[in-house]
Amino acid sequence: MNRLTEYAQSIPRPDADLFQAALDRLNQQVRPRGSLGKLEGTSARLAGIKRTLDVRLQNKVIVTCAGDHGVVEEGVSLYPQEVTPQMVHAFVSDGASINVLARHAGARVKVADLGVNYDFAPDLPILHAKVRKGTRNMARGPAMSREEAEQSIWAGIEIVDQLVREGLDLLGTGDMGIGNTTPSTAVIAAFSGLPVSKLTGRGTGLDDTRLRHKIQVIERALEVNRPDPRDPIDVLAKVGGLEIGGLAGLVIGAAAHEVPVVCDGLIATAGAMIGCEIAQQARDYLFPSHRSVEQGHAYMHERLGLDPLLDLEFRLGEGTGAAVAMELLDASTRILAEIKTFAELDVTQAQD
Predict the structure, then answer these.
(1) 190 and 218 in contact (C-beta within 8 Å)?
(2) CB of 300 closer than 8 Å to CB of 270
C-alpha cells in the first residue's frame, strides 16, 4: 500500500445518526415535506459531516489552483498562455470575478500555483506549490510523470493542512489555466469511455472549426497515451494537469479533515473526480456547485453520483460557481437549525 492510498483510507465517514436526525427534523418542520428541495438534503449531509444540527460555516476559503498546459501549442484555446500568470496577478489584486463573488459569500480567496509556466516573485501572496512549469503536450506524450502527478495531489493535501491550522469550515475549489478544458475533457473521456465528440465543449468560445480540431487533439492524446481508467493517477499523469492534481488533493485533504468541499466547474470537477477515484470516501464531503455549459460536466456529475445545486450557464471557472453555492450551503444550515417543527409551534400536522 502506498502513502497516498493509506492516507485516502484514513478518511472518516460522516455521522450517519446525525444525518438521520437532520432528516427527521426536516420532515417535522412546519411546511410540506420536501418543499425546500435540494437544500434539505444538503443540510442533512452537512449535519452528518459537522456532527451537529446547528452547523456554522464561518471560515470559508476558495482555493483557485493555477497551472499551464503544453497542449495549448496545438491551438485548442483562443487565449495565449501568458494570460494564466496575468490572471493570477489579477486575483491577487482582488479585482477578478472570483474576488467579487467570494467577498459577497464571505469567503477568502487563496491562489495556488501548481504549475504556471512563469516565475512568480517569492513574496507574491499566493500559495507557492509549483511542481513544474506547465505540463508537456499530452497530444504527443504523457502530460507529466507519475511522480509529478502524485506530487501535485500531495501539494493540494498540504494546502488543506495549512488552511485547517488557520481555521477552515468550508472549502471551495476553483481553477485558472489557459487550455485546461482540454485535459479536463480528456479525463472524463478516459474514465467514461464515451466518445470525445459527446464530451467536448467550446471552452473560451471556439467556433465550429476550432471545436472539431479540439476534439481531434483530445482523441489523439487518448490514443497516444492510453490512460488506464482503473488507475486515476495514470489518467492524471497522462492526460491531466498540475492544477487538476492539486484540486484532487484539495478534495482528499478536506475529506480527511472532515471539511465539506464545494467544487466549481469542469476543471474543478475533473480534479474532484480524480480525488474520489483515489479516495471513494471523499465523495461524502463533496458538493458540486453548478452545472457548466461545458458538455462533459454533466457526465462528471453522473460518474460522481451527485447533483449540482445550480445551473446558471456559467463557464468561467476560478471558483465562481463555488462562491455562489456557498451562500446556498449557508441557507441550508439555517433552515435545519431555525425552522420550527409542528410540535414546537403546536401546529396540526398533515395526515399521512
Answers:
(1) no
(2) yes
* Strands laid side by side in the 286-288 sheet: 127-128, 107-115, 60-67, 170-176, 261-263, 286-288
Q: Domain boundaries in the chain?
A: 60-326
Q: CB atoms < 10 A from the CB of 12, how many?
A: 13
Q: What is the pLDDT of residues 180-201, one digit of tens each?
A: 999 999 999 999 999 999 999 9
Question: 189: which 3 cell numbers?
Answer: 473521456
Look at residues 4, 34, 20, 39 and name the one whose alpha carbon lies nearest to residue 336.
39
Q: Which H or E run contains 276?
A: helix 266-278
> Is 318 marked active-site?
yes
Q: Treating both helix axes as pointing N-terminal to C-terminal, what angle do 16-27 and 38-50 enclose, rounded to 10 degrees? A: 140
**Options 318, 327, 338, 344, the catalytic residue:** 318
Flag whether pLDDT at 107 surpasses 80. yes
Q: How open is the CA angle 244-224-316, to the nearest 5 degrees?
A: 30
Which CATH class for the 60-326 domain?
alpha beta
